[in-house]
Amino acid sequence: MIKKILSFYLWASYIVGSVIFIFLIFILLMNLFIKPYNYFQSGKAKIIKIFQDNNLEQDNSIKQQLLRVYPGKGIGEIKDILKDSEGYPIEPTREYQASYRSRYVNVSKEGYRIIANQRGYSQDKKQKNIFIFGGSTTWGYRLPDNETIASYVQDGLNKKDKGFLYNVFNYAICSGYSKYEKRYLERLIMHGRTPDYVIFIDGLNDFCRVALRWPEESNKRLLTYEKIFKKYVFEPYIFWKGELSKLLGVNHKIGNHLLQYDEKSIEQASKELIFNWRAIKGICNQYDIKCIFVLQPIPVYDYPLEKNLFLDKAALKEERAYYMAASKGYRLLLQADILNSFKYLDLHKLQIKGYEYLDSCHYTADFSKRIAEYLVEEILRDKIRASDKINE
């Protein structure tokens, strides 16, 4: 009798152990294959698609909105521009851009987005090289190459200042922020690309990242055995939370991408932005580079929300915690004494008669041109100040 009981328990343990083992193998395989698959399929969407408040399908109301924010363009041309922008691979932590070619969006092998009448880097004393850094708004997401801020800056400078030939380079990174921009500048200088001017247009991404599941800031950290083991073995819940359904094409709300944040995290982001700007300023002083820092306009701080056709109060309340993070960040930044003693170009209240935003946060061509005009004026003022010092 005892032998039978022991034999029963032995077989029961064997069966239960086998089931548990098979289950764990199943979970492991699902995480090893489905999770990476979904990551690579939606890596870009995790950041950029968050800023797309409409699917831009065959909806007549959306078409009318698009025609208003893209004046002079037909719906077919607009869709082609959107398609080319959304086809660009978003990898903000690379610290440089991947090469890309299409009709409306082109990125060079050197990592800068090509602008109208793109010129090469030159060490000629009669030429000035200008590097512009920022996020997707500066990069010109959903705009053709010739309607980006950088393109308008080069055109404006070469028209207004015949004393030099200006070569402007759009080194903005979609989803990037000041930390990666600083590294990008360091990398360019190390490779012999020292500009005469650098422009950093920051604000939105420095605070949005606090409330978003931003990609890992260092891929090296993902390669530790501890994190891999923990991620793919001890966190099997990620399968049950929707990986299989995503593989089958079931959509999830954008709210799944949001993180909780607190005032301390916003305050830390504010300090980090200023720290990065100061570090950049130190680098520029060492290499005799003139730098211009810009606090960029955003649609949720000192801006009439009703002018944005793609972002309303209902959307903000429902799933836009990252915009609230940006709004709180701006409020804190503009009240902080540390910023009052720092020289920067404050454009956060800038508006135009037409539409500033062609989606929830990216600039229209007209707004990009207006921002560029301010930058041109600032560079020309700096040239006058430099000339006055020489005459003294």
Kindly describe this structure.
- This protein is an alpha/beta fold.
- The chain is built from 15 helices and 5 strands.
- Strands 2-1-3-4-5 form a 5-stranded parallel β-sheet, sandwiched between helices.
- Helix 6 (178-190) runs parallel beside helix 11 (263-286).
- The longest helix has 46 residues, at 2-47.
- It is elongated, with a radius of gyration of 25 Å.
Topology readout:
Elements: H1 2-47, H2 60-69, H3 75-86, E1 127-134, H4 136-139, H5 149-160, E2 165-170, H6 178-190, E3 197-202, H7 204-208, H8 219-222, H9 225-232, H10 237-247, H11 263-286, E4 290-295, H12 313-319, H13 321-335, H14 337-340, E5 345-346, H15 365-391
Parallel strand pairs: 1-2, 1-3, 3-4, 4-5
Structure characteristics:
alpha/beta, 15 helices
Summarize the structure.
With 392 residues, this protein is of the alpha/beta class. It has 15 helices and 5 strands.
Low-confidence parts, pLDDT < 50 over ≥5 residues? 39-50, 216-244, 246-257
Global Rg: 25 Å
Mean pLDDT value:
81
- Helix share, percent: 40-55%
